[in-house]
Amino acid sequence: IIQIEKIAREYEMGGSKIYALDGVNLEIGRGEYVSLVGPSGSGKTTLFNLIGGLDRPTQGVVYIDGVDISKLDAYELAWLRCRKIGYIFQTFNLIPVLTATENVALPTVFAGVPRDEGLKKAEKILASVGLKERLHHKPGELSAGQQQRVAIARAMANDPAIILADEPTGNLDLNTGMEIIDLLHGLNKSRGMTLIAATHDLKMIKASDRIVWMRDGKIEKIERG
Amino acid sequence: IIQIEKIAREYEMGGSKIYALDGVNLEIGRGEYVSLVGPSGSGKTTLFNLIGGLDRPTQGVVYIDGVDISKLDAYELAWLRCRKIGYIFQTFNLIPVLTATENVALPTVFAGVPRDEGLKKAEKILASVGLKERLHHKPGELSAGQQQRVAIARAMANDPAIILADEPTGNLDLNTGMEIIDLLHGLNKSRGMTLIAATHDLKMIKASDRIVWMRDGKIEKIERG
Ligand SMILES: Nc1ncnc2c1ncn2[C@@H]1O[C@H](COP(=O)(O)OP(=O)(O)OP(=O)(O)O)[C@@H](O)[C@H]1O
Ligand SMILES: Nc1ncnc2c1ncn2[C@@H]1O[C@H](COP(=O)(O)OP(=O)(O)OP(=O)(O)O)[C@@H](O)[C@H]1O
Ligand SMILES: [Mg+2]
Ligand SMILES: [Mg+2]
Fold first, then answer.
1. What angle is formed at CA B196 by the lines to CA A166 and CA B113, rounded to 5 degrees?
2. CA quadruple B152, B155, B158, B159: dihedral sign
3. Which residue, A36, A182, A202, B60, has most beta carbons within 10 Å?
4. What is the pLDDT, as a whole number, of residue A170?
5. Ligand 2 test: best mutation among A44, A47, A88, most atoms within 8 Å of CB?
6. Which residues of chain B have pLDDT under 50?
7. Using an 8 Å Cβ cutoff, are A198 and A123 in contact?
8. Which three-class secondary structure state does DSSP give residue A133?
């Protein structure tokens, strides 16, 4: 479902070049659960931003379902980012003035789902991540791990074919982290949702089908999970 | 050095009360390394904000060096927050328009250290957290784990007597996390700096002198490390 060919992402900083990604080739099959593991700064978030169409590579091509995503028009790109892909940001990126429920329901608004139906679905997903008692809290009225779970719930709102999860358990205790891993793994197994997770969490790595090890913007090795 | 007596922190949410902390008593000795462990939402960050004088309790008293911090005037409180305590925020709270070096040097400006000396010290601390190649990057030009390490470096800038570390390894891979734990533990052992760390990271918990287990705003039990 996803093919990455010779991807590079350079940054120019005051005369010197930084290669956040430097010649990455990767293929991910439909319904696979892949872990992306590597040191801080090795290029995981950068790769996610390219797969999710939130950033453009300096070189190389990203194909989703055989289509080069740099060739999509604004409408098709929006559809990709809103309907096909669910994105769990490493820094949550919740909207501060909206409640947890409104944050989770937002993607459904863009997908044309009626408001009440979207809010009801949002409440159901928030209950499934353990936040039934925090539906009307704004992000500033939530702990970091609770905000992270709202971000996880939001990614599931449109039943996407692919979820890009960037460090989804970083702020969670072991038990809550395990619940989230079971939830995401369950969607992968029951609905055939493709799950790509950047993580340092051994529990998540163990549950995956394949592990892609990254270092300094390159893929070091790929293992069976 | 820190005494917490019958602390509570309530929030009023549309008619119902939420107890982020509900009757917490705790004493932490000078030079101790204490881990604060508990599920997401159990009150760790709230307790840090009260100890660090960034928030006021609804009930109870926080004493630092025998002084009730709610009785401090604005000048004494600023001295406490800037010189005595180093704060590693769970969400980093770096200043986006400043470089990594300027962010780390900022507390030294408030402490009256000459500018060049502060910047030089900041570069030294940034090198000690593995960011020698990222001194002039702004937060937006850094990975999340790199931003977290800038936040850790900033907390060390004024050689504080106490460091409050809120999930300092959440975004770091195992090796980088280990380096940070060794660094903080080293300051604790060599300089007698008091270290209080909220964490879900087993490596950090194991290195500590005592473990305070929290749940639903209360202390559940306290163990020797
Ligand atoms: N401004 C607020 N209004 C209402 N409730 C709040 C507010 N801030 C925090 N809370 C609630 O207080 C509880 C404690 O929050 P706190 O941030 O201290 O938890 P935590 O232990 O740090 O969690 P985490 O491990 O997820 O960071 C949470 O349930 C949270 O929803
Ligand atoms: N805008 C930018 N300008 C310059 N360098 C950048 C920029 N954004 C990212 N980088 C660099 O690119 C590298 C890869 O960053 P990326 O965020 O992808 O790492 P990561 O693997 O997600 O790390 P972490 O585990 O800490 O989240 C880092 O070394 C970072 O400093
Ligand atoms: Mg990242
Ligand atoms: Mg917290």
1. 95
2. negative
3. A36
4. 92
5. A44
6. none
7. no
8. helix
Whether the predicted pLDDT of A223 surpasses 90: yes
Summarised one tens digit per residue, pLDDT across range A44-74 is 999 999 999 999 999 999 999 999 999 999 9
B177 with A200: Cβ contact below 8 A = yes
Q: Is B113 exposed, middle or buried (0-12, 13-18, 19+ CB in 10 A)?
A: middle
Q: What letter represents residue A124's amino acid?
A: K
Residue A15 has pLDDT above 90, yes or no: no
pLDDT recorded at residue A225: 80
Residue type, B52: G
Residue to test with chain A: of B18, B35, B91, B143, most A Cβ within 10 A: B143
Beta bridge partners of B17: B12
Nearest CA to ligand 1 atom 17: A143
d(CA A4, CA A8): 10
A18 lines ligand 2 (CB under 6 A): yes
pLDDT tens-digit readout, A160-183: 999 999 999 999 999 999 999 999
